[in-house]
Amino acid sequence: TARVTLRTIRKKYDAGEPLTMVTAYDYPSAVHVDTAGIDILLVGDSAAMVVHGHDTTLPISLDDMTSHCRAVARGARRAFLVGDLPFGCYETDPRDAVKSAVRMLKEGGMDAVKLEGGSPARVEAARAIVETGVAVMGHVGLTPQSVSAIGGFRPQAQVAEEALRVLDQAQALQRAGCFALVLECVPGPIAAGITRVLSIPTIGIGAGGECSGQVLVYHDLLGMMSHPHHAKVTPKFCKQYARVGDIIGSALQRYRQEVEERVFPGPQYSPYRMPEQEVRSLA
Ligand code: KIV
Ligand code: NA
């Protein structure tokens, strides 16, 4: 199967076919997402939360992100690979942004990068990266890297003034050369309006059904963290397509029980033998 490129993405968008995107963080998740035929694989900075256990996406470093990217790139053969630029590596200066983006491609093996926000400075960063020859995906609405300024993970653009600002940001990012935009946690009608106005695809998460595509976080859609005592909740907008956490939990409990009862490994999983006389010679 041929690799998904910007041209493949453009063709689907032009044909009105929904684009599919899922996050992945390591080799096995990349193999799973890729072989399921998902178009775009995002190495999200949500890794900070779902892989490293932080409460926000802020702590993850560019080094850690490139390491996740490399593992994902080894596992993906078909999907278009987008890597999140982490908090703190692109905001201060467009030159920092370009350097960080180049690392995500050269060291991380990504096809494109994603950055958050649509302020004039972010738009400049996006433009500088695009001019370097690196494809950029934008991200507006709820931008988790701004959780400190927003005051929590809260839905965005619920009043007209804010909705118009998100639209302005989306248009500015399109003009800067972004090939697509994530719309996170904005009302469906607002996302639909932005999608109609733009001429690049929108990828929604908690943004209703009329975006050009949808994205979910791997661990959330698989129900990986469904443990009753686990503090992190699956977001309201996320459908759980499985309860993989329960499957993992019961497998591990059965293993523990079988070892404790000396049922495992038993003869079936004890494959290495020595001829009888050799065993006797050791006695
Ligand atoms: O980091 C992430 O997982 C993301 C998606 C939710 C779009 O940015
Ligand atoms: Na992200």
UniProtKB/TrEMBL annotation:
<dbReference type="GO" id="GO:0000287">
    <property type="term" value="F:magnesium ion binding"/>
</dbReference>
<keyword id="KW-0566">Pantothenate biosynthesis</keyword>
<dbReference type="GO" id="GO:0015940">
    <property type="term" value="P:pantothenate biosynthetic process"/>
</dbReference>
<comment type="function">
    <text>Catalyzes the reversible reaction in which hydroxymethyl group from 5,10-methylenetetrahydrofolate is transferred onto alpha-ketoisovalerate to form ketopantoate.</text>
</comment>
<keyword id="KW-0808">Transferase</keyword>
<comment type="similarity">
    <text>Belongs to the PanB family.</text>
</comment>
<comment type="pathway">
    <text>Cofactor biosynthesis; (R)-pantothenate biosynthesis; (R)-pantoate from 3-methyl-2-oxobutanoate: step 1/2.</text>
</comment>
<dbReference type="GO" id="GO:0005739">
    <property type="term" value="C:mitochondrion"/>
</dbReference>
<dbReference type="GO" id="GO:0003864">
    <property type="term" value="F:3-methyl-2-oxobutanoate hydroxymethyltransferase activity"/>
</dbReference>
<protein>
    <recommendedName>
        <fullName>3-methyl-2-oxobutanoate hydroxymethyltransferase</fullName>
        <ecNumber>2.1.2.11</ecNumber>
    </recommendedName>
</protein>
